[in-house]
Amino acid sequence: MSDLGERSYHKELRILPLGYDGRAMTAERFSPSVTVAAIIPDGGEPPRYLLVEEHTPEGLRLNNPAGHLDEGESPQQGVVREALEETARVFTPEAIVGVYLSRFVRPATGEDVTYLRLAYCGRVGEPLAGRTLDDGIVRTLWLTLPELQASSARHRSPLVLRCIEDHLAGQRYALDLVLTDASVMAPEIKG
Predict the structure, then answer these.
(1) Cα(28)–Cα(31) distance, rounded to whole angstroms?
(2) Which of 40, 44, 76, 179 has a CA-to-CA distance to 146 between 20 and 30 Å?
(3) How far apart are alpha carbons 112 and 6 in whole angstroms?
(4) If we measure between CA atoms, which residue out of 98, 132, 130, 133 comes closest to residue 116?
(5) Sign (positive/negative) of CA torsion 65, 68, 74, 77?
């Protein structure tokens, strides 16, 4: 283990024939954890945003409905799935708010994690009858920007507030900004 601590993202040690300077070298392949997040305003003025309160290793935290991208799904499919699992509501993405890179080191373990987050904004329907919230999710709640700012010490990451502030500032990109190649669903086998 290096003195930087154990990293929870995937690494692969490779031997490269020559570095850019002509010397043989080794390198670790950096692979951040890809996550998707739903930024969901209620349509009011001022808007309130749908958040989840969840158990984490750091205690009870507030987060946008969010989670890891699963194998074989597009980011848009992933954000719809995560929003449903964490809020019991069907999420309809309307735009991409942004793509964010962040890093987090767990105080208790020294685990070092880098996240690549794709944040989508959209709307949700009413909670589905009989649908339970994902394990670890305590409840959903709607908060205004001042309430979010006042609770920042309880946010799972600084991106919770940043994504909402970007949404409030009007930052939007077309959903087709992120292309999911057909090989994600059916990998191409090259022979």
Answers:
(1) 9
(2) 76
(3) 6
(4) 98
(5) negative
Residue 108, helix vs strand vs coil:
coil
Instruction: Tell me the C-alpha distance between 62 and 114, whole Å.
Output: 19
Closest residue by Cα to residue 115 from 68, 174, 61, 154? 68
State what percent of residues in the chain have pLDDT above 70: 86
Quick one: which of 57, 39, 32 has its CA closest to 115?
A: 32
Q: Which residues contact 55 (CB under 8 A, 6 or more apart)?
A: 136, 138
Domain ranges of the chain: 32-175
The topology (CATH level 3) of 32-175 is Nucleoside Triphosphate Pyrophosphohydrolase (3.90.79)
Six token digits for residue 186? 């059916």
Token pair of 131 as six digits: 């649908």
Q: Which of 164, 129, 130, 159 shows the shortest CA–CA distance to 49?
A: 164
Q: What is the pLDDT of residues 83-124, one digit of tens each?
A: 999 999 999 999 999 999 999 998 888 889 999 999 999 999
CB 170 within 8 A of CB 85: no
Rounded Cα–Cα distance for residues 172 and 60 (Å): 30
